Each structure stands twice: as structure tokens, then as C-alpha cells.
């Protein structure tokens, strides 16, 4: 993995776009400044994690990319084009979006849920749905089930498959695995990281879990009070760099790893 923050680790040329935040500010109606003049360049084909305390502005910043939240000031560019230009559906067609409790339609089968973005494009493609089930490592037979007949982890995989249906180059994930057990969380995180490298996707992932950010992403943005407090690599964070806010977040998985290692050595 390259050390330099922001360089994609994928060996192939990226298929995902670059994302630019230019002094992006979001002020809510009650005066809350959720995002405060954030400027940042996300390199095409890179995997970036957004971490920070609750309320630090991570989700708000992420949602300015697919226009779920319009900035009060500043702008967001995808491959140099302002996302506020043109109809929202046109911008979102090129962006996969995965969030916690993925919001599958309960009255549609798994296959129908996955095919939904294709239907909006007037495409019907059962082979594509099967390929997407393969991508997220779900048995094809699950396509006929209803969402209520799946486990939480399987539902989340279906959400990822649906987000990938239109073959977007950019994937936005907001606490995508937050409600899952640790094993499924780890497996899915690795699967996404593999997919990102293989396809050269640009991924922006909000997570509360610093260990997840360190293991899956190649660059970590630490948010505090609507600003980026640190912009660095997992390796640099593990060397103790990035400042106090970042190090307070790293301290949790570090201490856990040390306690587990001590248990392994037979310490009480
Ligand atoms: N619709 C809204 N109206 C007013 N304030 C809001 C609104 N949505 C979010 N906020 C505030 O904006 C700030 C940033 O919220 P945001 O959801 O972006 O943070 P976050 O870092 O994603 O938090 P969490 O980790 O808890 O999901 C918080 O103070 C929040 O209370």
C-alpha cells in the first residue's frame, strides 16, 4: 500500500471518478453548522474512510456528494463537474449508495430489489442480477426470496448489490455494516475492499469503527466540528501521527488489540 495519502492502491487504472470538495459548508435552518468550509480532493479509484465523533458532520458531508443534502456554500465536483448541475437522477445514476438498514422494498423479491435501478433505466437483465449476487457472494437461489426471509448480513449484501447494479464508479457508504455482527462486518468490509481494488472504484465510507477504517481504507479523514482534523493514511495513524483527535480514535482498537495479545500470552 502506498504511503502517500490520497494515492489509489489499485494496480489498474481507476474506473471511478475523482471527487472534489471546494469549501463545502452546510448550515441547517436552526443555525447548526454541520460542515464548515471543507476542501478536499478524493483521488479517482481510492478508498477513503470518514471517521469522527458523533455529530462531527460525516454523514452530512457524504450526502452532499449525491445531492441528498445541498451545501449552503461551496461546491462538490465529480470529475470536475459540479454535482448541482442537471437533474439529480442523472448524478445519482453514476453513484452507488449504501447505508445502514439498507431500505430494501419489503414487497419486492431480492432479485427485484437488485434490479430496481436497472428498471429505472428501462433495462431488464436477469443475468446481470445473477452476476451481482455472485459479486456480493450470495447464492443465486436467494434471488427469489423476500427481504424478510434474509438475515441482516444477507440484506446488507443485497443493498450492496443494488448499489452496484448500474455499475457506478463511485460508491458512497454510510455506516454500511453498522448493524451487523463482527464476523459478517469483517467479511463484508474485506469484500468491498477487494471489489474496490479490482474495479478501481472510488469509495467514500463513513464509519464509527476506526478499526474498520484502518483495515479497509487507504486514506482516513478525521472529522471534528464540521472540519477535517486529520487527513492521513492508516499506517501514519498507527505510527501515532494525525493529531490528538485522530489518536484518541486510534487508541480504542489499539488498546483492544493489546489486551487481546496479552490474553494470548496468558496475562490476566
Ligand atoms: N436536519 C438537520 N437539522 C439540524 N441539524 C442537523 C440536521 N441533520 C444533522 N444535523 C446536525 O448536524 C451535525 C452533523 O450531523 P451529521 O449527521 O452529519 O454527523 P455525523 O458525524 O454523521 O454523526 P453520527 O456519527 O452520529 O451519524 C450534528 O450536530 C447534527 O445534530
Topology of this protein?
Blueprint: E1 19-27, E2 33-42, E3 47-52, H1 58-65, E4 73-78, E5 81-82, H2 88-92, E6 95-99, H3 110-120, H4 126-135, H5 152-163, E7 170-174, H6 182-199, E8 202-206, H7 210-216, E9 219-224, E10 227-232, H8 234-238, H9 244-264
Parallel strand pairs: 3-8, 3-9, 6-7, 7-8
Antiparallel strand pairs: 1-2, 1-4, 4-5, 9-10
Helix pairs in contact: 3-5, 4-5
Protein model, in words:
This protein has a domain at 9-94 and 201-268: Rossmann fold (3-Layer(aba) Sandwich). 36% of the residues lie in helices and 22% in strands. The chain contains 9 helices and 10 strands. It has helices at 58-65, 88-92, 110-120, 126-135, 152-163, 182-199, 210-216, 234-238, 244-264, and strands at 19-27, 33-42, 47-52, 73-78, 81-82, 95-99, 170-174, 202-206, 219-224, 227-232. The strands form 2 sheets. A 6-stranded mixed β-sheet has the order 6-7-8-3-9-10, with helices on both faces. A 4-stranded antiparallel β-sheet has the order 2-1-4-5, covered by helices on one side. Strand 7, helix 6 and strand 8 (202-206) form a beta-alpha-beta unit. Helix 3 (110-120) packs parallel to helix 5 (152-163) and helix 4 (126-135) crosses helix 5 (152-163). The model has no long low-confidence stretch (mean pLDDT 89). Adenosine-5'-triphosphate (ATP) binds next to helix 1.
User: Major beta sheet, specifics?
Assistant: 6 strands, mixed
CATH architecture of the domain at 9-94 and 201-268: 3-Layer(aba) Sandwich
The helical percent reads 25-40%
- Give the strand order, joined by hyphens, for the main sheet: 6-7-8-3-9-10
Low-confidence stretches: none
Q: Structural class of the helix and strand makeup?
A: alpha/beta
Overall geometry comes to globular
- Annotated CATH homologous superfamily of the domain at 9-94 and 201-268: P-loop containing nucleotide triphosphate hydrolases
Classified by CATH, the class of the domain at 9-94 and 201-268 is Alpha Beta
What is the CATH topology descriptor of the domain at 9-94 and 201-268?
A: Rossmann fold
User: What is the CA–CA distance across the termini?
Assistant: 36 Å
Strand content: 15-25%
* Radius of gyration (Å): 19 Å
Oligomeric state as shown:
single chain
Number of helices: 9
DSSP summary, beta strand count: 10
List cofactors, ions and other ligands.
adenosine-5'-triphosphate
Query: Order of helices and strands, N to C?
Result: EEEHEEHEHHHEHEHEEHH
> What integer is the average pLDDT?
89
Amino acid at each position: 500500500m502506498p504511503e502517500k495519502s490520497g494515492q489509489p492502491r489499485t494496480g489498474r487504472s481507476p474506473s471511478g471518478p475523482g471527487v472534489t470538495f471546494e469549501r463545502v459548508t452546510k448550515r441547517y435552518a436552526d443555525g447548526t453548522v454541520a460542515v464548515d468550509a471543507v476542501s478536499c480532493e478524493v483521488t479517482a479509484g481510492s478508498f477513503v474512510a470518514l471517521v469522527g465523533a458523533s455529530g462531527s458532520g460525516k454523514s452530512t458531508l457524504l450526502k452532499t456528494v449525491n445531492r441528498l443534502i445541498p451545501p449552503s456554500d461551496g461546491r462538490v465536483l465529480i470529475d470536475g463537474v459540479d454535482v448541482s448541475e442537471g437533474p439529480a437522477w442523472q448524478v445519482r445514476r453514476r453513484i452507488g449508495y449504501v447505508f445502514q438498514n439498507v431500505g430494501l422494498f419489503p414487497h419486492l423479491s431480492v432479485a427485484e430489489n437488485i434490479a430496481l435501478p436497472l428498471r429505472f433505466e428501462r433495462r431488464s437483465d436477469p443475468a446481470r442480477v445473477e452476476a451481482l449476487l455472485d459479486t456480493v457472494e450470495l447464492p443465486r437461489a436467494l434471488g427469489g426470496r423476500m427481504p424478510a426471509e434474509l438475515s441482516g448480513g444477507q440484506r446488507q449484501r443485497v443493498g450492496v448489490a443494488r448499489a452496484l447494479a448500474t455499475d457506478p464508479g463511485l460508491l458512497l457508504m454510510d455506516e454500511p455494516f453498522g448493524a451487523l455482527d463482527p464476523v459478517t462486518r469483517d467479511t463484508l468490509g474485506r469484500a468491498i475492499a477487494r471489489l474496490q481494488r479490482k474495479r478501481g472504484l472510488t469509495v467514500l465510507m463513513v464509519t464509527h469503527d476506526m478499526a474498520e477504517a484502518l483495515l479497509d481504507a487507504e486514506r482516513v479523514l478525521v472529522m471534528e466540528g464540521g472540519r477535517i482534523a486529520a487527513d492521513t493514511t492508516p499506517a501514519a495513524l498507527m505510527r501515532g501521527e494525525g493529531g490528538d483527535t485522530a489518536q484518541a480514535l486510534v487508541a480504542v482498537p489499539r488498546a483492544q488489540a493489546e489486551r487481546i495479545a496479552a490474553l494470548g500470552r496468558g496475562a490476566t
